# Entry
Amino acid sequence: MTKQEAFEKFIVPIGPQHPALKEPGHFEFVVDGEIVTGAAIRLGYVHRGIEKGVESRNWTQNIYMLERVCGICSHIHATAYTLGVEQLANVTVPPRAQAIRTLVSELERIHSHLLWLGVAAHEGGFDTLFMFSWRDRETVMDLLETISGNRVHYSTNILGGVKIDLDEEKITAIRKGMDFLEERTHHYLKVINTDETFLGRTRGVGTMSSQQAEELSAVGPTARASGVPRDLRIDAPYAAYPEFPVRLMLSNEGDLHARFVVRMNECLEAYRLIREILDHLPEGELTVRMPRRIPEGETISRVEAPRGELAYFIKSAGGDKPDRIKIRTPSLCNWGTITSVAVGHKLADMPMLLAGIDPCFSCNDRMVRVNRANQPQLWSWEDLRLYGIEYYR
Amino acid sequence: MDTDTALQNARQLLEGFASEIQQPELNRLDFVIPVESLLKVVEVLKSNHWGYLSFITGLDCPAAEGAEAAGGKLEVLYHFAESAAVVTLRIRLPYDRAEVPSLCTLIPSVSIYERELMEMFGIQVIGTPDPRRLLLPDDWPDGVYPLRKSYQGFGSTSAEPQVEI
# Structure
């Protein structure tokens, strides 16, 4: 037997670029054979300097700027920002506007969760589920386009209200869409809970106890799948959530499977909530007048994005531009769980595990370089994915 | 726990450490803490299970034009959240001693926020386990901190064209 250095580390770098997925990120997994023994993150490949950029734009321009922080949860960014600025200006937004904001937030949550279901299924090698869920997601995308005119950046919010209204025709379309999606979601829940192959890839994988989730400051569905009752729509209701309360979706299993179940249950809850909002849509104005200059002060605006708590810190110096806006997105909290939870798992589980937190999913790679002694092997993300599927066959 | 009780508890726990307490909004308390007692304060919050660290904000407050340059300062805001209640620990730092201790021993997940604070504001976080860059490019020059007010971009000195709407 040839002599081998005892504690030689193999590092598998994943990232930063993948043309098919959203943002890029870079991970380094330290492996011992199959088992991951360490993980590190490097972000910033799509850093656009938005926090600096907002300081040179006025309050109105910044809605459009901030909506572009994310292409999946664009509406919730604008909502967090407008709620914060309205708070600073001491302006009360009409109830109809708040209800429409909430309605669009929930539609966005549905589209985001269905998108995630597809991505996560794909990483697990279940491409049929991926294609079905993305086909069904088109229903909610069409609805968003019908009511706002846009598929991605709906641009619903303005300071002091919303700029879209709902008429009978649109309400009927939304109801019809919800009925269809509800039926489909029940079907997906059945698949998730009964498909043997799928359960083999998800049950007991990436388990995080509620104590771990608390310690690692996990947020959103990732935390709720580990039994941490944390949901800002319930803890600190904003917009129209005080009038239209949501039910908390929890699971105590803490594994990947639980993250699927929690997100699908949240979709079901969203359908219920949307119907309730449509049933009791308040009448009245859509906007109130906002001052051009916002009084001096600081505020914190926290909302529940599809991925968890999104926090905005907004400071005004009394002018027509903000002095500072700090944005903390939920994915940033959940990255931390990856570096801890990955340890002890097989390399083949990494694609699923990464997808499991629904990171405004970055990364991953044209190329993975396996540093094995002197013969580096080059793997693409696709290779790693196939390796994972093959491993479990 | 409702918001008022949570805030009252926080006030009781932290009153002894703070040099200044403000309530900017109904659900928020703002404690100005000397940097030396930061670790102690976080430990008190943690051992009493008061909320979780939601995020860290860096602030650059340069001296007003015409005033003494020494008037300027950096601020680090640690926001702890318990349901709707938010407690902010505000640390004021002079430019020439911009250092805070790392919270990683108490809250491991804070590493990412500390790395961001270091590269964006040039605030040294003493003892953070991974001081490498998180967001800025590898070839970003040392000593240039983009979120400081003095940073106006590279190249031409003229700011971007003002758009009137």
